[in-house]
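A common beginner's mistake is to predict each chain separately and then try to dock the pieces by hand. The better habit, illustrated here, is to supply every component at once so that their relative placement is modeled jointly.
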Amino acid sequence: SAVISQKPSRDICQRGTSLTIQCQVDSQVTMMFWYRQQPGQSLTLIATANQGSEATYESGFVIDKFPISRPNLTFSTLTVSNMSPEDSSIYLCSGGQSFYEQYFGPGTRLTVT
Amino acid sequence: RKEVEQDPGPFNVPEGATVAFNCTYSNSASQSFFWYRQDCRKEPKLLMSVYSSGNEDGRFTAQLNRASQYISLLIRDSKLSDSATYLCVVSGDYKLSFGAGTTVTVRA
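With all components supplied together, the output reads:
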Protein backbone atom coordinates (compact mmCIF):
# COMPACT_ATOMS: atom_id res chain seq x y z
CA SER A 1 0.00 0.00 0.00
CA ALA A 2 0.96 3.66 -0.13
CA VAL A 3 0.21 6.61 2.12
CA ILE A 4 -0.48 9.82 0.27
CA SER A 5 -0.54 13.34 1.62
CA GLN A 6 -1.69 16.52 -0.07
CA LYS A 7 -1.06 20.17 0.60
CA PRO A 8 -2.97 22.37 1.09
CA SER A 9 -5.96 20.55 2.51
CA ARG A 10 -8.19 23.46 1.57
CA ASP A 11 -7.95 26.95 0.16
CA ILE A 12 -10.11 29.87 -0.80
CA CYS A 13 -8.78 31.71 -3.84
CA GLN A 14 -9.77 34.70 -5.90
CA ARG A 15 -10.73 34.28 -9.53
CA GLY A 16 -7.90 34.81 -11.95
CA THR A 17 -5.23 33.48 -9.60
CA SER A 18 -3.51 30.08 -9.64
CA LEU A 19 -3.06 27.43 -6.98
CA THR A 20 -0.52 24.64 -6.90
CA ILE A 21 -1.45 21.46 -5.05
CA GLN A 22 1.29 19.12 -3.87
CA CYS A 23 1.00 15.35 -3.60
CA GLN A 24 3.57 13.31 -1.67
CA VAL A 25 3.72 9.50 -1.52
CA ASP A 26 5.54 7.68 1.26
CA SER A 27 7.07 5.18 -1.19
CA GLN A 28 7.97 5.04 -4.85
CA VAL A 29 4.98 4.39 -7.08
CA THR A 30 4.80 3.75 -10.78
CA MET A 31 1.54 5.58 -11.42
CA MET A 32 0.16 8.86 -10.14
CA PHE A 33 -3.14 10.44 -11.10
CA TRP A 34 -5.08 13.62 -10.50
CA TYR A 35 -8.87 13.65 -10.14
CA ARG A 36 -11.58 16.19 -9.53
CA GLN A 37 -14.70 15.47 -7.53
CA GLN A 38 -17.62 17.85 -7.23
CA PRO A 39 -20.20 17.37 -4.47
CA GLY A 40 -22.44 14.40 -5.10
CA GLN A 41 -20.63 13.48 -8.26
CA SER A 42 -18.16 10.86 -9.35
CA LEU A 43 -14.43 11.27 -9.52
CA THR A 44 -13.34 12.62 -12.88
CA LEU A 45 -9.83 11.84 -14.04
CA ILE A 46 -7.93 14.99 -15.02
CA ALA A 47 -4.64 13.41 -16.05
CA THR A 48 -2.04 10.75 -15.49
CA ALA A 49 1.17 12.26 -14.11
CA ASN A 50 4.13 10.71 -15.92
CA GLN A 51 7.53 10.75 -14.27
CA GLY A 52 9.99 12.79 -16.28
CA SER A 53 7.60 13.57 -19.14
CA GLU A 54 4.44 15.47 -19.93
CA ALA A 55 1.24 14.37 -18.27
CA THR A 56 -1.46 12.56 -20.24
CA TYR A 57 -4.67 14.58 -20.10
CA GLU A 58 -8.23 13.33 -20.39
CA SER A 59 -10.75 14.83 -22.73
CA GLY A 60 -11.84 18.24 -21.50
CA PHE A 61 -8.65 18.99 -19.58
CA VAL A 62 -5.68 20.86 -21.04
CA ILE A 63 -2.13 21.48 -19.94
CA ASP A 64 -2.46 25.26 -20.00
CA LYS A 65 -5.25 25.13 -17.44
CA PHE A 66 -3.94 22.22 -15.34
CA PRO A 67 -0.16 21.99 -15.64
CA ILE A 68 1.22 18.95 -13.85
CA SER A 69 4.72 18.10 -12.76
CA ARG A 70 6.16 14.79 -11.63
CA PRO A 71 9.87 15.12 -11.01
CA ASN A 72 10.27 11.72 -9.32
CA LEU A 73 8.42 8.59 -8.26
CA THR A 74 7.08 10.01 -4.98
CA PHE A 75 5.95 13.56 -5.77
CA SER A 76 3.63 15.42 -8.12
CA THR A 77 2.02 18.82 -8.36
CA LEU A 78 -1.17 20.03 -10.03
CA THR A 79 -1.67 23.72 -10.73
CA VAL A 80 -5.13 25.12 -11.30
CA SER A 81 -4.49 28.20 -13.43
CA ASN A 82 -6.50 31.35 -13.98
CA MET A 83 -9.20 30.07 -11.66
CA SER A 84 -12.91 30.73 -12.00
CA PRO A 85 -15.75 29.75 -9.64
CA GLU A 86 -16.39 26.71 -11.86
CA ASP A 87 -13.03 25.31 -10.68
CA SER A 88 -14.34 25.04 -7.12
CA SER A 89 -14.08 21.36 -6.34
CA ILE A 90 -12.15 18.73 -4.44
CA TYR A 91 -8.91 17.74 -6.14
CA LEU A 92 -7.57 14.30 -5.32
CA CYS A 93 -4.22 12.75 -6.01
CA SER A 94 -3.78 8.98 -6.23
CA GLY A 95 -0.82 6.68 -6.66
CA GLY A 96 -0.01 3.02 -6.99
CA GLN A 97 2.04 0.41 -8.78
CA SER A 98 -0.54 0.06 -11.53
CA PHE A 99 -3.56 1.93 -12.77
CA TYR A 100 -5.92 -0.55 -11.06
CA GLU A 101 -4.18 -0.30 -7.70
CA GLN A 102 -4.69 3.25 -6.55
CA TYR A 103 -4.45 4.80 -3.11
CA PHE A 104 -5.90 8.24 -2.65
CA GLY A 105 -4.76 11.32 -0.84
CA PRO A 106 -7.19 13.15 1.45
CA GLY A 107 -7.98 15.74 -1.20
CA THR A 108 -7.70 19.51 -1.52
CA ARG A 109 -10.94 21.41 -1.14
CA LEU A 110 -10.77 24.47 -3.38
CA THR A 111 -13.21 27.36 -3.32
CA VAL A 112 -12.87 30.12 -5.90
CA THR A 113 -14.61 33.39 -5.17
CA ARG B 1 -24.11 7.65 -21.61
CA LYS B 2 -21.98 7.58 -18.47
CA GLU B 3 -19.31 4.90 -18.29
CA VAL B 4 -20.50 3.74 -14.88
CA GLU B 5 -24.00 4.32 -13.55
CA GLN B 6 -25.24 3.75 -10.04
CA ASP B 7 -28.47 4.25 -8.15
CA PRO B 8 -27.55 7.17 -5.89
CA GLY B 9 -29.86 6.00 -3.10
CA PRO B 10 -29.91 6.78 -0.29
CA PHE B 11 -30.58 3.35 1.12
CA ASN B 12 -31.70 3.77 4.71
CA VAL B 13 -31.61 0.47 6.58
CA PRO B 14 -31.78 -0.63 10.21
CA GLU B 15 -28.84 -2.28 11.89
CA GLY B 16 -28.69 -5.97 11.10
CA ALA B 17 -30.51 -5.65 7.79
CA THR B 18 -29.22 -6.75 4.41
CA VAL B 19 -28.81 -4.14 1.70
CA ALA B 20 -27.87 -4.69 -1.92
CA PHE B 21 -27.33 -2.41 -4.89
CA ASN B 22 -25.98 -2.56 -8.41
CA CYS B 23 -24.11 -0.58 -10.94
CA THR B 24 -23.93 -0.89 -14.71
CA TYR B 25 -21.01 -0.16 -16.99
CA SER B 26 -20.90 0.67 -20.67
CA ASN B 27 -17.49 -0.58 -21.82
CA SER B 28 -17.79 -4.27 -22.60
CA ALA B 29 -13.98 -4.48 -22.84
CA SER B 30 -13.53 -3.60 -19.16
CA GLN B 31 -11.39 -6.15 -17.38
CA SER B 32 -11.25 -5.24 -13.70
CA PHE B 33 -13.95 -4.19 -11.30
CA PHE B 34 -13.91 -2.80 -7.79
CA TRP B 35 -16.02 -1.38 -5.03
CA TYR B 36 -14.58 1.60 -3.17
CA ARG B 37 -15.95 3.13 -0.02
CA GLN B 38 -15.98 6.87 0.57
CA ASP B 39 -16.89 8.33 3.94
CA CYS B 40 -18.21 11.86 4.15
CA ARG B 41 -15.50 14.39 3.28
CA LYS B 42 -12.87 11.66 3.07
CA GLU B 43 -10.95 10.03 0.25
CA PRO B 44 -12.12 6.85 -1.49
CA LYS B 45 -10.67 3.60 -0.17
CA LEU B 46 -10.70 0.21 -1.83
CA LEU B 47 -13.33 -2.05 -0.29
CA MET B 48 -12.93 -5.07 -2.51
CA SER B 49 -12.14 -6.27 -5.98
CA VAL B 50 -14.87 -8.05 -7.91
CA TYR B 51 -14.05 -11.36 -9.58
CA SER B 52 -15.96 -13.13 -12.32
CA SER B 53 -16.98 -15.97 -10.03
CA GLY B 54 -18.20 -13.61 -7.33
CA ASN B 55 -16.42 -13.16 -4.05
CA GLU B 56 -17.03 -12.52 -0.38
CA ASP B 57 -15.14 -10.52 2.18
CA GLY B 58 -16.75 -10.98 5.55
CA ARG B 59 -20.22 -9.47 5.41
CA PHE B 60 -19.69 -8.11 1.89
CA THR B 61 -20.47 -10.06 -1.27
CA ALA B 62 -19.71 -8.81 -4.76
CA GLN B 63 -21.02 -10.27 -7.99
CA LEU B 64 -20.16 -9.57 -11.61
CA ASN B 65 -22.43 -10.25 -14.57
CA ARG B 66 -20.41 -9.65 -17.73
CA ALA B 67 -23.25 -10.53 -20.09
CA SER B 68 -25.48 -7.83 -18.63
CA GLN B 69 -22.57 -5.58 -17.69
CA TYR B 70 -23.51 -5.04 -14.10
CA ILE B 71 -21.85 -5.41 -10.73
CA SER B 72 -23.56 -5.83 -7.41
CA LEU B 73 -22.63 -5.40 -3.77
CA LEU B 74 -24.52 -6.98 -0.90
CA ILE B 75 -23.94 -6.10 2.73
CA ARG B 76 -25.23 -8.54 5.34
CA ASP B 77 -25.86 -7.79 9.00
CA SER B 78 -25.39 -4.05 8.46
CA LYS B 79 -23.46 -2.09 11.07
CA LEU B 80 -23.66 1.61 11.85
CA SER B 81 -20.09 1.85 10.59
CA ASP B 82 -21.19 0.69 7.14
CA SER B 83 -22.80 4.08 6.57
CA ALA B 84 -20.89 5.53 3.61
CA THR B 85 -21.02 6.09 -0.12
CA TYR B 86 -20.06 3.06 -2.16
CA LEU B 87 -18.37 3.75 -5.47
CA CYS B 88 -18.50 1.28 -8.34
CA VAL B 89 -15.22 1.37 -10.26
CA VAL B 90 -14.40 -0.16 -13.62
CA SER B 91 -11.05 -0.32 -15.37
CA GLY B 92 -10.39 0.32 -19.03
CA ASP B 93 -7.87 2.09 -21.27
CA TYR B 94 -5.27 2.22 -18.47
CA LYS B 95 -7.50 4.20 -16.16
CA LEU B 96 -10.32 3.75 -13.67
CA SER B 97 -13.83 5.04 -14.23
CA PHE B 98 -15.86 5.83 -11.13
CA GLY B 99 -19.58 5.80 -10.59
CA ALA B 100 -21.15 8.66 -8.66
CA GLY B 101 -21.76 6.38 -5.70
CA THR B 102 -24.60 4.80 -3.77
CA THR B 103 -25.20 6.24 -0.32
CA VAL B 104 -26.04 3.81 2.46
CA THR B 105 -27.19 4.96 5.88
CA VAL B 106 -27.53 2.38 8.63
CA ARG B 107 -29.68 3.49 11.55
CA ALA B 108 -29.75 2.16 15.09
